[in-house]
């Protein structure tokens, strides 16, 4: 059972979301916003990057989709030399000097990437024009208050510059793909990616289409299509099949579905990269088809117990987990990373893996847990030598009786510091950083979980959201490097998400009242 979310709601004006990316250097430097932390941003993305001109074009394209009649009213400029933002990430909103605008541009927005440009556009539309931009199901884009072209409000003085206090702004939960995204086409995804950029999200999960990758990888290990029919869950249940909670339920997947999802993922990744985002791709967690036990009889493969499936029916429950300590784990893991690079290009160095998400290890021996973590990371790094492991921290809350200090340290320190990022998934209610000495020195992202199961209700702890990230960032020896939204389902409670998003740019607590 998932815990019921707390029910406290304050009223507040809508807020925005922003925050950029950087990869880790020493935790204290990252938390303090030191220059080394921001310079490490360059290493977060893969080699496939968008040029400044391409990012400016991506921001202009977003504007055309949002405000087609104002497409000439704004000028976008990437701060590629750091003259505006230095080594941090920011956007600056200012007036176009008379005569210097392109095609009658009135407002100039400069920023580190196209995400900052879009964030600056959103900030201006919200605070100068009184507009509100949300999901269609929560009001949509309310733009009637924006003056006509040629009459946009002027920005006082030399403009307004907004910097990110921490580099990352993460988005999604591994189950959001099933609760909310499952039936989306490119048109809906394009709108969502625009929303991400406007909210300042620069580290989105990108899980679409991975079954097509897995099909190719598993076939190279002599797994047949028939075997995979029993392995993959149906479209609405892929999140739990991916995590090894169930198999086959709602399936099988047609080849047409697999091909269509792969093509969709390539569009999603291309647009994310054009906007300067760093997508987070999946990696191998050990979940394998049942036939693996027969194909590799000497491999260390365990059949797991039931996980809330229908009557504990073995047709759906009790999946197979390849132990990370087995050499076959590394072979499969690196093959999956390399197949993604082959399909998508070198688009990221950050990979998600949640081997122990609601699956308890067979022993609490720290040495064993450490060996598992090391093997998981080795599989990633053999596929991509610059790999960084991003892990949901839900297990430290949901199975707190198992994950005591020795077990947490064993897992968190099983890879070099700076090669793992932990999502403090439920920090809005149960912040783990407070009871783990800042995740024992490992960089983490302060996250709001908020929604369970895609339930539509009016709730949200606005006072926690408005102060929690500030408390974490300014605490002693903080290793916090970002904020994030990890709701299980989206398209509800717009005030909550506006505030959480905007906390990425606040240095001080927001007075909610």
TrEMBL record:
Residues 58-153 form the Alpha-N-acetylglucosaminidase N-terminal domain. It catalyses: Hydrolysis of terminal non-reducing N-acetyl-D-glucosamine residues in N-acetyl-alpha-D-glucosaminides. Residues 170-506 form the Alpha-N-acetylglucosaminidase tim-barrel domain. Residues 1-31 form the signal peptide. Its EC number is 3.2.1.50. Keywords: Glycoprotein, Glycosidase, Hydrolase, Signal. The keyword Glycoprotein applies. GO terms for biological process: system development. GO terms for molecular function: alpha-N-acetylglucosaminidase activity. Pfam families: NAGLU, NAGLU_N. Belongs to the glycosyl hydrolase 89 family. This is Alpha-N-acetylglucosaminidase. It comes from Zea mays.
């Amino acid at each position: 059972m998932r815990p019921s979310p707390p029910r406290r709601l304050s009223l507040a004006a809508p807020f925005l979301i922003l925050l950029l990316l950087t990869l880790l250097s020493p935790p204290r430097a990252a938390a303090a916003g030191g220059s080394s932390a921001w310079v490490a941003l360059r290493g977060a993305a893969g080699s496939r990057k968008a040029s400044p001109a391409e990012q400016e074009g991506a921001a202009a394209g977003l504007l055309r989709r949002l405000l087609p009649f104002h497409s000439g009213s704004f000028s976008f400029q990437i701060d590629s030399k750091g003259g505006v933002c230095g080594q941090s990430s920011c956007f600056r909103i200012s007036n176009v000097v008379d005569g210097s605008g392109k095609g009658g541009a009135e407002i100039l927005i400069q920023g580190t990437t196209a995400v900052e440009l879009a964030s600056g556009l959103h900030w201006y539309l919200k605070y100068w024009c009184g507009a509100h931009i949300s999901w269609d199901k929560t009001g949509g884009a309310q733009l009637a208050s924006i003056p006509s072209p040629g009459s946009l409000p002027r920005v006082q003085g030399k403009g307004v510059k907004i910097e990110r206090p921490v580099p990352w702004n993460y988005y999604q939960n591994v189950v959001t793909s099933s609760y909310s995204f499952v039936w989306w086409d490119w048109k809906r995804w394009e709108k969502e990616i625009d929303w991400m950029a406007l909210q300042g999200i620069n580290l989105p999960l990108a899980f679409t289409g991975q079954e097509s990758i897995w099909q190719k990888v598993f076939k190279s290990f002599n797994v047949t299509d028939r075997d995979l029919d029993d392995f993959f869950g149906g479209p609405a249940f892929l999140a739990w099949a991916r995590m090894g909670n169930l198999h086959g339920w709602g399936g099988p997947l047609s080849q047409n579905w697999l091909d269509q999802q792969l093509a969709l993922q390539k569009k999603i990744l291309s647009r994310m990269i054009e906007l300067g985002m760093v997508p987070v791709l999946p990696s191998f967690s050990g979940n394998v088809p049942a036939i693996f036990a027969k194909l590799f009889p000497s491999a260390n493969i365990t059949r797991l117990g039931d996980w809330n499936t229908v009557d504990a029916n073995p047709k759906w429950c009790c999946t197979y987990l390849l132990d990370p300590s087995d050499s076959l784990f590394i072979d499969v893991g690196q093959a999956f990373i390399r197949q993604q690079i082959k399909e998508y290009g070198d688009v990221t160095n950050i990979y998600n893996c949640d081997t122990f998400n609601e699956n308890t290890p067979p022993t609490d021996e720290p040495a064993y847990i450490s060996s598992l973590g090391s093997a998981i990371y080795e599989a990633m790094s053999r596929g991509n030598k610059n790999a960084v492991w991003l892990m949901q921290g839900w297990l430290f809350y949901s199975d707190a009786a198992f994950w005591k200090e020795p077990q947490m340290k064993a897992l968190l320190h099983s890879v070099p510091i700076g090669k793992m990022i932990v999502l403090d998934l439920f920090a809005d209610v149960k912040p783990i950083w407070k009871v783990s000495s800042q995740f024992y020195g490992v960089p983490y992202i302060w996250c709001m979980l908020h929604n369970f199961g895609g339930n539509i209700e009016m709730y949200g702890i606005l006072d926690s959201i408005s102060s929690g990230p500030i408390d974490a960032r300014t605490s002693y020896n903080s290793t916090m490097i970002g904020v994030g939204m990890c709701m299980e389902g989206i398209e509800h409670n717009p005030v909550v998400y506006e505030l959480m998003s905007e906390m990425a740019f606040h240095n001080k607590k927001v007075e909610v009242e």
